[in-house]
Amino acid sequence: MPFKHYNDSSGADKLPLSLIANGRRRTHHTQWSIVFLRVFSTLVLCSIALTLSIFLPTPWSTLRSNSFSSKVSFQKANDPASDWRDDIWPLRPQTPWDISTDFPYPRVLEYDVSEGTWLRLDVHPKSGDIVFDMVGDLYCLPAADVAKGSVTRARPILLGIPFDTDPHFSPDGDRLVFRSDAELGVENIWVMPWKGCGAMDVRSLEDRSGDVFLEEALKSKKFEERLLIEGVKETDQRRYNRLIREGRHEAQRVTNETYRWVSDARFHPSGSKVIATKWYTSSRSLGAGEGWEYPVPSLEDLGERRTQVNAGEGNRVLGRTLPPGWSVEEYGDQQIGPEQFIWNGPDSIIFSKNVRDANAFEYSKDVHSGIYSIFHRNLTTNSTKPLVGAFPGGASRPELSRDGRTLAFVRRVRDKEALVLKDLQTGSLHHIWHGLTYDLSTVSAPMGTYPSYAFTPSDDAVIIWAAGQIYSVPLSTNKYGERVASSTPPSPIRFIAHIEQRIAETLRGGVDVLKLETQDTQRVRALKEMRVDNHGERVVFQAAGVSYLQKIGEKVASKVPVLHERAPYYSPSFVHGADNLVIHARWSDINFSSFEISNLQSGISHEIVGTPLGRYFSPILCECDGPGRQIAFVKSGGDHMTGDVIATAGVGLYIGDINLPENDAKVSTQIKIRNLRFVPSDIDSDDRVNMRFLEKNKKLLVQQSSRAFVIDFGAGPNELGEYQHLTLASGRMSSEMVASPLSGNVKAENVAFVDFFHVYFAPGAHLKEGETVWSRPGNATRSLARLSLDGGHDVTFSRDGKKLFWFLGPFLHSLEVSRLHHCASTIVGDPLTFGISCVKSLVQYQEVVIEHSTDIARLKRDAAAASHEHKEWLHAQASDVVVIYNATLLTMATGDPARDLIPGGMLVVRGGVIDSIGTLDNTILSTGVTAINAHRGYVIPGFIDVHAHWEGFAGRYPAKSWEMETFLAYGVTTLHNPSADNVDGFVERSRVESGQLIGPRIFTVGDIIYGAGAAGIHQDIVDQAEAYSALVRIKAEGGPASISYKNYNIPSRASRQRLLIAAQNLTMLCVPEGGMNYDWDLTYIIDGMTTVEHALPVPILYEDVLTLYALSGTGSTPTHIVNYGGAFGEQLVWATQDLPNDPKLRRFTRHDILQGLTESSARPANSYALFNTSTSVAKMVEMGLLAHIGAHGEPPLGLNYHAEMTFTQQGGLSNYEVLRAATSSAAKTLGMFPSLGSLSRGKLADFLVYPPDVDLLHDSITTTRDLRLVARGGRIWDASTMEEVWPVKGNKQIVPPINPD
Questions:
Q1: Are 141 and 228 part of one and the same domain?
Q2: CA atoms of 973 and 722, how far apart (whole Å)
Q3: Are 754 and 773 spatial neighbours (Cβ–Cβ below 8 Å)?
Q4: What is the average per-residue pLDDT within 428-443?
Q5: Can you tell me the distance from the alpha carbon of 652 to that of 635, in angstroms, rounded to the nearest whole number?
Q6: Where in this chain does the entry annotate a coiled-coil region (predicted)?
Q7: According to the model, what pLDDT value does residue 632 have?
Q8: Whether 368 and 497 share a structural domain
Q9: Given this model, what pLDDT does residue 1110 score?
Q10: Which domain range does residue 238 map to?
């Protein structure tokens, strides 16, 4: 059903139904539990309310009534914030950069608007002038013009590349503070003198006659901007002119943050300082607020430019509180904190806080029960008391009247959003107006849960943004002196603003998929599981399910001999003392893991038998003499891809006995494992494991992500059967750790590890006992050397410890450890990059070339074989031709549904490529081609999921993927994953392309480029070299298939710009995480990022943003399924469809996942902001925006892609426009339209065939899921069973036993 905008100024439309949301992930109270909790809350509050801090989460907090506001809590003297040191992130300081001059903006968008989105404003305390922000610029409405009642021209007072927001006046109106990302691109607080709207207008001399500086700056504007575009360095005079034109020539910093960012500054009554929200990220990139105080220059100081601000200066006024049981060391992990601070007199503050989440932000909360509360804190006594409770509807965005008596805030009231006043003397609440836009208390909102607003100088009205307009809400006073709603209704203050945005070129790229898939072979570039022989002369490794041997210095890699050519292999390792032998594991989706010992010289392989059914990895043999050996390996439990049903017990280390095969054996033999036993150990079977025996078989060296340790078998077990574990080295944040042990001594001679994608080396002699190795400058391990220029993985020592090896894509790097002394002085003298400028000359590398056949090459062979077997008379040149006839073709080639629709059409495919499109009347077919009757059903291009997540790539075992099969069964022929793994993501792609499993073609960003403090994936991007390396790491692993990267909430715009420059040189796309930060999202668009992933957190957009977004060239992947601003769309799917019993889903998906989607709780339609998002997207599509379908990989896979299409259609798009988003628009954005995305001659044959009773253009859009056939690159399957239809009829892959029923 179609949905209309909710929460505009005229009120919400009454909704005819109640919608349901699933409670599997996010708990919502049922009716019986609410009754219970109310009783419970009363009892408990009576007994302990006086001793509880309002910051500690309580089970009854959702039900607090107005009595909540009378309780008082006291901040403890030992505030945990005062004992916590914010000294880890960022790892390195930023290098100089100016976002306005070091990044090109060659385009200009100019347009007029009469409405705006999320306008944060303030009112001058004397004149009544209104200042507000809009798309990163500041504007002013003169009070005198507003009083005339006509449309007021908004005066631009601050323009330019910096994104400026949150304007607020000083108490006497002589200064204006605002937030800006000027210069380095981190949002800080700035201040400038206030001279009035007209006197600060930077585009008109009407009120600035005689201002020769502005006049000259405007005259030189075009010329000087052209010089910047051409890369001509800005002179001091040009910089002065630019700052004059922008209005910031008198602006000065108040804060100087280079990693944390600051917002929403408010003046102290004295005018000498401000309080602002400083945002702290943890391992999660959603910021937690704290209240910080900063001195502000006086008007005199501004004139003389006396003030200098050091990085990080400021004073914490109110920090975060810790949940019960948390220590000071965990303070940085607290994701919830106070925000939206205002002063209440000289020594008190009022603020708002999320009281529903204890320590981690949760999505899809219940806005009707309330999320935020408002508090008062006395800074002298450190006492805090609640002013307004969260229940019902929440309370946020507090603002005070000029006389300090009336507190204004916003809250949800049924299907409306209300402006509410609380009289602080009497405690009375008055709902003033129910015409506000819905607040954003459901999301993490550094832009504010509602735009800031203000009382007029005389407190007779509130000036506030709502529904695209700035409104005046008149107030009156009742007989008790309380401010209440006036009899005069609120009215909009009409304005017109001219927007002038310099924007960057949109980042474009892509890949020639047609060329890639129609050649005979493709390369495997992501290689892993490397092991090295004794002296560093040979390595073995896994290449997408195939074990390979590479001799150092030779060009050609060779496959390790195997018993089953079509089976996938993994975990190869050399056999010490038997140079021609390699042991590795074989995977079977039915029988799970087996081990083989392969003779590299004879080509004979031998199977080890006697292991129980199980999942095994990392097999090694002891370094013993003679044929009798011990074997060690690790067993893991069930996992996402192989199921949790079969052989899940007994996880851990196993040791057994075997005899090596005869070296001259001519035939394959079976090797019986004997005395197999479980050995208790500290090995984490879910982590990487690199093992090696020491001292023959007396000790076992185990190397994992952050620890290398020795298990001492020689000393014997203790009374519990446990062996001593001795740590050689451990890493504080490492993702790989290896050690070269000293002979005869349980100590590390040398240690190598991977930290933040780079390979490092540390001499064991310099490691103190218990010390963790770390690469953070200032805290780094002594004598640490960086070995990798751009990064590396699978770091491994040769057995003798003299050489160190690692991979970066297909490039095998090696270093003779003894040569590091040549760079000793450089290493010691380089505390930031640890000598890489010298070390890079010592490193050797060679390219490893591994190829496999393409699926189209295999298709041609399969078709030829099938034709020879069944139709020997068939001409050879026609064997790879298949025809879909009697079809209703919808080509999606032109964007015009009338031209794209071909009734009675015929699609001819030759060798996996579309040969022709037409009708039977104008098509001549070769004799004996395979023909499929479509029975007049629709045939359309295969779907592209632009934003799909899944888990299978991270699996250890090379199993068939039920995930990939499910995607394909629902018509998705191309996947783009915006968060995977630099190595494993591309390994999975190669396994699909090599035919080990069926599925859509995969493209991925690899690891995200992450701004928050997560070990392993955090990247600072402090200079251009680091930006280049960050992208080279991705490009190396995927080669041509590495088409994109993901900026994930990187706080510095300078860092984001550096990545964009590097991406342009590497022809890569940028698909940033929207991340609920409205302001950052707009800079992504302005700076030319390819898309914005997820919706903007403000669901209803207006002219300013609609125009900017639609005309920018940046595409939109709104993911209504996980929409910001309200309940997720997936909950609506879970609630309204019988997913656990869906026959097709049960055929392809894990049943436990489906069962987890069974129960749900009622949620009204107005809780789903996704419908407003859909409307905004539809408006922009009409203006030229390329929208895409991305289902986020939410369960159930496949089906939710079609649900996302349905949500996209709800905003007003036609079925054709939705199908265009799913096909051609996605292909254009990803740079693949020349190869796919439409049914056009010369493109890859990705197509979907529907039954004749499905009318895709006129039926409900939900019929897109009713597929008959799906084809990827010409290979055709029955979509209901995934049994192959052509060319190998009846072929069907077998997946592991993922379901018990």
A1: no
A2: 51
A3: no
A4: 97
A5: 5
A6: none
A7: 98
A8: yes
A9: 98
A10: 206-246
CA pseudo-torsion sign 1213, 1216, 1218, 1224: negative
Q: Is 130 helix (H, G, I), strand (E, B) or coil?
A: strand
Distance, CA of 693 to CA of 683 (rounded, Å): 15
Give me the CATH number covering residue 378. Answer: 2.120.10.30
Gap between the Cα atoms of 30 and 384, Å rounded: 32
CA geometry: angle at 593 spanning 740 and 661, to 5°?
70
Residue 1216 lies inside a defined structural domain of this protein: yes
Q: How many Å apart are CA 581 and CA 51, to the nearest integer? A: 70
Pull the structure tokens for residue 1212.
């007003």
Q: Which of 503, 526, 558 is the last residue before a domain boundary?
A: 503
pLDDT digits (tens, 9 = 90+) for 1084-1098: 999 999 999 999 999
Q: What is the pLDDT at residue 1233?
A: 98
| Domains of the chain: total | 3
Looking at the fold, whether 394 and 420 belong to one and the same domain comes out as yes
Strands 772-773 and 724-731: parallel
Q: Are residues 305 and 165 in the same domain?
A: yes
Q: How far apart are CA 71 and CA 49, in angstroms?
A: 7
Residue 610: inside a domain: no
Return the closest-CA partner of residue 1272 out of 1040, 1074, 1000: 1000
pLDDT of residue 1268: 98
pLDDT of 711 strictly over 80: yes
Final residue of a structural domain among 1197, 1230, 1263 = 1230
Examine residue 491 and state whether it is found in any structural domain, yes or no. Answer: yes
**Tell me: the pLDDT tens digits for 960-999?**
999 999 999 999 999 999 999 999 999 999 999 999 999 9
pTM of the model: 0.94
Q: Are 288 and 370 found together in one domain?
A: yes
Give the pLDDT confidence of 347-387 residue by residue, as tens digits.
Answer: 999 999 999 999 999 999 999 999 999 999 999 999 999 99
Average pLDDT over residues 156-163: 98
pLDDT tens-digit series, residues 89-133: 999 999 999 999 999 999 999 999 999 999 999 999 999 999 999
**Each residue's pLDDT tens digit, 505-548:** 999 999 999 999 999 999 999 999 999 999 999 999 999 999 99
Residue 306's pLDDT is 66
At 221, is the secondary structure helix, strand, or coil?
Answer: helix
The two three-digit tokens of residue 65, written as one number: 């009534």
Record the tokens describing residue 122, joined without a space: 């303030």
pLDDT (tens digit per residue) in 869-889? 555 444 456 899 999 999 999
**How far is residue 83's CA from residue 89's CA, in Å, rounded to a whole number?**
17
* Residue 804: C-alpha distances to residues 368, 572, 751, 798 (Å): 59, 18, 10, 6
Residue 342 falls within a domain, yes or no? Answer: yes
Largest CA distance in the chain: 107
3-state SS track over 738-785 = EEEECCCCCCEEEEEEEECCEEEEEEHHHCCCCCEECCCCCCCCCCCE
Q: Are residues 234 and 376 in the same domain?
A: no
Nearest to 365 by CA among 373, 355, 376, 356: 356
Q: Report whether the peptide linkage leading into residue 162 is cis, meaning its omega lies within 30 degrees of zero.
A: no
CA distance 1004 to 998: 17
Residues 1138 and 1202 occupy one common structural domain: yes
**240 and 352 together in one domain:** no
Dihedral angle of Cα 222, 223, 225, 228, to the nearest 10 degrees: 170
